[in-house]
Amino acid sequence: MSLTNFSAGAQSARSVDPATKVTVPALAEMKRQSKPISALTAYDYATARLVDEAGIDFILVGDSLAMVVLGHENTLSVTLDEMLHHTRAVRRAVRRALVVADMPFGTYHGSIPEAVANAVRFVKEAGAEAVKIEGPRVELVRALTEAEIPVVAHLGLTPQSVHRMGGYRVQARTAETLRQLRADARALAQAGAGALVLEGVPREAAAAITADLAIPTIGIGAGPDCDGQILVFHDLVSLTFAPAAKFVRRYADAGSLFRSAIEHYREDVEHHAFPSDAESYHMPAARRDPAPEPYGEDAVVNTDALEDLGDFSRP
Ligand code: KIV
After folding, report:
1. Catalytic sites, residue numbers
2. Tens-digit pLDDT profile for residues 77-111
3. Half-sphere exposure of residue 272, counting CA atoms within 13 Å on the CB side?
4. Residues with Cβ within 6 A of ligand 1?
5. SS3 category, 106
6. How far is the CA of 228 from the centre of ligand 1 (A)?
7. CA–CA separation, 131 vs 121, rounded Å?
8. Closest atom of ligand 1 relative to the 63 alpha carbon
9. Whose CA is nearest to atom 2 of ligand 1?
10. pLDDT in tens, 118-146
11. Facing residues of 37 across strands?
12. Residue 3: per-residue pLDDT
């Protein structure tokens, strides 16, 4: 291989610093050193940049985008092409965080070769550094790992199983289901998963699994004893249109902020208060009056010069 273009891949508009880049092995090292792992979802360039520049370790292009960005009722309908499109946008923004792409429903539920081929697209076409898959798909985790694609596994409340689960319900609340969850978690780790998202499980279950495994657990609605925490960006900043779940902490009210800015703008337009003269471009003073005609009516005039109003860029 050549290291010539190591820090600026074709997908990446911002250069990556290999010294600080978060990788899947780096997450395991953070667990060994008892350093909490911070994770958030992001789905577009602007939010991914903010999340990365704030020092979040792990950015998930989650299929939750189906609901919070695309307005679907659940995560099931988002397509592979839509997920690739959003992953590319996030990839262009991120320098430091690990970029993980969620494989959408239906793209890894058929044959293993088909699932591996779909995962390869996330790495090759969108610049993902790992893929996330839901459920105890041990053989698939092994196959992806053998294909050099790091895997983040996801157990507990797995939203793509909403119909089988009969709704979004906390999982592993009995000794028997907890035993099964622990066995699944161990099998996924042994098959090569690099991290495990635990969603919607009792705190005690997450603590037991976190203690069982050498790979990091990343919790959402799983209590404080996981190795890291993840939230959906839109929940964190109140950009959803529904009451928050118990496990969500709202760190800002971006919905109210945006709503008020938009209403203020509309009022200004309606009252001719926007744009002001200072927000307008002007003809250079020397060009405001028609040029004097020093020559006769038949003279050749360079009219192009009169069209040049200067740079249209911001001040
Ligand atoms: O899609 C998503 O956002 C997720 C997280 C909630 C873990 O899977």
Report:
1. 199
2. 999 999 999 999 999 999 999 999 999 999 999 99
3. 1
4. 41, 60, 62-64, 102, 197, 199, 220, 230, 232
5. coil
6. 14
7. 10
8. 1
9. 62
10. 999 999 999 999 999 999 999 999 999 99
11. 228
12. 61
43, 191, 211 from 215: Cα distances, Å: 26, 12, 10
Going by CA atoms, what residue is nearest to atom 4 of ligand 1? 62
Nearest CA to ligand 1 atom 8: 62
| pLDDT of res. 294 | 53
Q: What is the pLDDT of residues 209-242, one digit of tens each?
A: 999 999 999 999 999 999 999 999 999 999 999 9
- Taken in order 120, 141, 111, 157, the sign of the CA dihedral is negative
Question: Residue 225's CB: how many other CB atoms inside 10 A?
Answer: 17
Token readout for 164 is 């089988």
Report how far residue 121's alpha carbon sits from residue 111's, in angstroms, rounded to the nearest whole number. Answer: 16
Is 102 strand, coil or helix? strand
Q: Which structure tokens are listed for 263?
A: 């209403």
Question: How far does residue 157's CA lie from ligand 1's centre (Å)?
Answer: 10
309: CA distance to ligand 1 center in Å? 49
Give residue 103's identity as a one-letter amino acid code.
M
pTM over 0.85: yes
Taking each helix axis from N to C terminus, what angle separates 80-93 and 45-53, rounded to the nearest 10 degrees? 50
What span, in angstroms and rounded, lies between the C-alpha atoms of 152 and 140?
A: 12
User: Is pLDDT at 10 greater than 50 in this prediction?
Assistant: no
Give the Å distance between the CA of 65 and the centre of ligand 1.
9
Ligand 1: atom nearest CA of 230 is: 7
